[in-house]
Write a structure and sequence with these properties.
about 220 residues, alpha+beta, Alpha-Beta Plaits, 2 domains, three-stranded antiparallel beta sheet, 5 helices, 8 strands, elongated
Length: about 220
């Protein structure tokens, strides 16, 4: 869209500049004919009119040139802003920056398996969570929740333990409804996991931290 607008603006300005040049050329020809037929004071008056006309034309050309420059600058600024917006979106998507917004906090207080944590994570994502954290650690697409050799739970290699606190950014009402629906995942947890207490709280403002390991690529490079 920006490229199209820039092309239209450039074409219009070029047309106007060409029109002004042709107008100046025609005026000069007309003045030359009149000057050939005139003499004395009349000739001097015609020359003065021609000079003034040329000054006006040069001013108009300068104004159109400045306008065309401003069009180019505006287009570049719009393009730059679009690129910056996309960069910020990708940073949020990949967990490179801390984010905040409305959402929910979900607590699993008691013994829960790694599979339980994965199921709850998927439940939140399916309900529209845009950013997630577990016990203060950002969860991204490459995150791994896995058991350690001694039977504990680790998130991206960092050992954690219950109570497990999930923080999710998204529409609070939608997230709460999805989590607390009859027969849903949390209902199953409450009815089948002895000693596991479940709590869901809507929040107007929660913070999800940046991922500590984002951007640490050793072998992968962009394809050019």
């Amino acid at each position: 869209m920006n490229t199209r607008a820039s092309q239209i603006s450039t074409t219009l300005v070029t047309f106007l500049l060409g029109f002004l040049v042709m107008a100046q050329f025609t005026t000069q020809q007309r003045m030359d004919l009149k000057r050939a037929a005139a003499s004395g004071a009349d000739g001097a008056l015609l020359i003065s009119d021609l000079v003034e006309g040329n000054v006006r034309l040069r001013q108009e050309v300068a104004e159109l040139g400045a306008q065309m420059t401003s069009y180019g600058s505006a287009t570049n600024q719009a393009r730059l802003q679009a690129m910056m917006d996309e960069l910020e979106r990708l940073k949020m998507l990949n967990g490179a920056v801390e984010v905040a917004g409305p959402g929910v906090q979900v607590t699993l207080d008691g013994p829960a398996t790694v599979l339980d944590l994965h199921d709850l994570l998927n439940e939140l994502r399916n309900a529209g969570a845009e950013a997630l954290a577990l016990n203060g650690q950002r969860i991204v697409a490459s995150s791994v929740i896995a058991p350690t050799a001694d039977g504990r739970t680790a998130v991206d290699g960092v050992v954690t333990h219950y109570p497990y606190l999930f923080v999710a950014i998204g529409d609070p009402a939608t997230l709460e409804t999805a989590l607390l629906r009859p027969g849903g995942l949390l209902a199953v947890f409450s009815n089948s996991r002895e000693g596991l207490r479940v709590n869901v709280q809507k929040r107007d403002h929660v913070i999800v931290p940046a991922h500590a390991l984002v951007g640490m690529f050793q072998y992968a490079v962009p394809v050019k």
